[in-house]
Design goal:
Alpha-Beta Plaits; Serine Threonine Protein Phosphatase 5, Tetratricopeptide repeat; two-stranded antiparallel ribbon; elongated
């Protein structure tokens, strides 16, 4: 057994290399061959078995590859000047690893406050509502008060129409109004207002109107102002700087008109400095042109006012008639009167007086007398100025009999004759060369 074991161990042992010899030439090493083991030796020797492979563990996914770095320019070492002028961009920073922060602690929800009971605006404003008042919005820019009144009069009799429009730009118009229905026999104003509110969205000259009942907002604001005044002695809030500037410009315009009427350039400049002229300022400007007899500028100012959406009143129309009368254009004055009547504005005693005076200046006593009779029929009570104008018209034409009749009529009505009437009578007697009656009037004038 010892010889059998020693023999395989002898075959497994490797031969040792011989000692180096001083020969100059190295010989190649001899090939080494292993001899196969005998069957007896292989049966006695067994190789150890390999251990089983470890179980497969799931590996984490690999991190994403970093972005590729830009390739360096092979000519960067040679492009010295270019690298100085435009250096290459710096390399991108390394990707940051996402740090996982611990989740914040949960926030406890705060208890919601209990909702407070709010006042119902409709209930509050119900006491401030005005019966029979209707709001109408989205009116066309050129809508007039008479047209709106004619359209909504089908629901009941109207007491008043308040048309509110912007005066800055004719194309940008506020376009709303307030209707006030009146109580009539058999129907109340509130019933008429409710019938009008039912046509909300009706088409009016290409616009869809907004029609609704009054919400009492204006009455509530007035009540708050009244309460503020009673409690703290304060009225409305002070106006803005824009309102202060506008009021100052209006005062300056009136001052220039009164102090320097001969300087028309200063008057026009002061008027143009007003940011938003009202009907009053337009009327004063028309009066200024009327006194100068400038009917063209008076008409232009009148049309400018209407283009801004400001409806003319009797004073503005009378001033325009005065401008035509001073210019001795009575045909234009009568056209203004017709326009005035078409607007539904009645002629005043001042309008009749201006027309009679204008016809007297052109020696048309018949037209002046017709207007005087119309004024007496429509107005009833007349004053000494209109009597003086009609007397002057007949004295200019030499019709002293009619002038004397008018003087007696004036005295019977208890109207004191102004001094202009005496001057007109004396001038008329001078025209017909009646010296005796002229002296009688003069003696009466001295008394």
């Amino acid at each position: 057994l010892s010889s059998g074991v020693a023999m395989p161990m002898q075959f497994l042992s490797l031969p040792t290399a011989p000692a180096a010899s001083p020969a100059p030439h190295l010989l190649p090493p001899k090939p080494f061959f292993l001899k196969p083991l005998s069957s007896s030796a292989s049966s006695s020797f067994r190789r150890p078995s390999q251990p089983p492979p470890p179980p497969h563990k799931p590996s984490s996914p690999p991190p994403p590859p970093p972005p590729p770095l830009p390739l360096p320019n092979p000519l960067s070492s040679k492009l010295w000047l270019s690298s100085k002028l435009s250096p290459p961009p710096p390399p991108p920073p390394p990707p940051r690893t996402r740090q996982q922060h611990p989740p914040p602690p949960p926030v406890k929800p705060e208890p919601e406050p209990e909702p407070e009971e709010e006042e119902d605006v409709d209930d509050v404003d119900e006491g401030f509502r005005q019966k029979g008042k209707v709001f109408v919005g989205n009116l066309p820019p050129r809508a007039r008060k008479a047209e709106v009144a004619d359209f909504f009069r089908q629901f009941g009799p109207l007491d008043k129409v308040e048309l509110v429009r912007a005066h800055d730009d004719p194309e940008r118009n506020a376009g709303f109004c307030f209707l006030y229905y009146a109580d009539a026999e058999g129907q109340a104003a509130e019933a008429a207002a409710e019938r009008a509110a039912e046509v909300d969205g009706v088409d009016f000259r290409g616009r869809s109107l907004t029609v609704r009942l009054d919400d009492g907002r204006k009455g509530r604001a007035r009540a708050e102002d009244r309460a503020r005044w009673v409690d703290h002695g304060q009225g409305k809030e002070p106006p803005s700087p824009w309102h202060h500037g506008r009021d100052e410009a209006c005062r300056e315009f009136r001052r220039v008109v009164e102090s320097r009427p001969e300087d028309w350039q200063a008057v026009v400049s002061a008027f143009e400095r007003i940011p938003k002229p009202s009907r009053r300022e337009f009327g004063l400007m028309i009066v200024y042109y009327a006194k100068r007899g400038d009917k063209h500028h008076a008409r232009a100012t009148f049309e400018n006012m209407r283009a801004r959406g400001i409806e003319p009143n009797a004073f503005v129309f009378t001033s325009l008639v005065h401008a035509y009368a001073v210019a001795r254009d009575m045909r234009g004055a009568l056209s203004c009167v017709e326009e005035m009547k078409a607007e539904g504005i009645e002629l005043t005693i001042v309008t009749y007086s201006i027309l009679i005076s204008g016809f007297g200046k052109i020696n048309d006593a018949q037209s002046a007398d017709n207007l005087f009779k119309e004024a007496k029929t429509n107005l009833g009570d007349l004053n000494g100025i209109i009597y003086s104008n009609i007397i002057h018209a007949h004295c200019q034409s030499g019709n002293m009999d009619r002038a004397e009749e008018l003087v007696r009529e004036m005295e019977e009505d208890g109207i004191d004759a102004p001094i202009d009437a005496y001057h007109s009578m004396m001038h008329g007697y001078t025209i017909i060369q009646d010296e005796k009656k002229c002296l009688i009037v003069f003696e009466r004038l001295k008394v």
